[in-house]
Amino acid sequence: MSDREFEDCKQRRLIERQRYIQTVWLTLGLRHYLETRAKQCRFVSAEPIFHTEQGSEIRPDVVLQYDSNSGALCEIKTSFPIPDSLLLETLKQLEKYGQPVIGWGTNDLTVQHHDVMLFCDILDINRILPKIREWLDNGQLKIPENLVVCEWGIVQSPKIGDVILVRKRWGNARSEELNSLFNEDWVIDLRTLIIAYEKCRFTRKEPPVEYTMEQIWLYIFTKKTEKFEAFETSIEETLSIAYEYYLPWSNIRGEFSQVRETWIKKAMKAFCSIELAKQVTDDQSKYKVFRDKEIDKDFLGYIIERLCRKREESKLKQATEPDKEQRTMGDFQQLS
After folding, report:
1. Which candidate, 313, 197, 192, places its Cα nearest to that of 246?
2. What is the pTM of this model?
3. Does the structure show a pLDDT above 70 at 330?
4. What fold is seen in the domain 209-299?
5. Please, what is the Cα angle at 156 between 153 and 159, to 5 degrees?
């Protein structure tokens, strides 16, 4: 593996992790802002499961409810593809959001009308918004409900440090209160969010494995032991601690945790691959964790570097194995 390939791998993994945590931060920012500033418009949940009338499943990033007859399904985007064909395909996800959907916090799980809100990264908005208008005008994009487009970004404030900035760029919501709040930019202190919502670190979307590993190592394993020592644990025990530590976003429709067992299993497998853990049972349920191992840099940087090395080693192995098989068959044919 060349130095360039190695650096590219590390950069990709860092970007994926950063996009995930930024989605978490914006979700928390919307929740915090509305809970402190709004009276009627309320944050309902992060990524609950809704269904269209045809039975298709949709998972909006954020759900807002204005009253018993209206609300909003929100989609958060940290990036968009460059080619128009892929961009249009990505935006067509909003067409499902624009259909009548079942899953609202009402008696019959429906509302009469709802808005569709798209939150675009501030670096993408000037490219995306003209395309949205164009495709809505010519019918390539069909969203029957109100569409509201906002830009968002994490910027540096001279007074309070890093803040999330949210600004409406196009469209109007059915909530007069929400439209009134959008008359000014939303400035949300990132430090306040991190302190106030320490135990909200996952959305329902599967995180990059490095992100899960980082969370487990820094927050879950420390609940097992505060000492830097090796210890044994199980998937069941790790998941139980995670269930207690990471609070659910809401109490709707049986939501009980942010974390999934499959994410924990993938993280433990990755720990084993870089020798920070060892499987101690054949069924992959119990592990020995080497928290006593010296790590000479920040933990995230350490595991990303190690995993990038492992990924490249695995690619090389897969690439050479067919050649080895082919050579063996050739030799056999010559001998026969």
Report:
1. 197
2. 0.86
3. no
4. Arc Repressor Mutant, subunit A (1.10.10)
5. 130
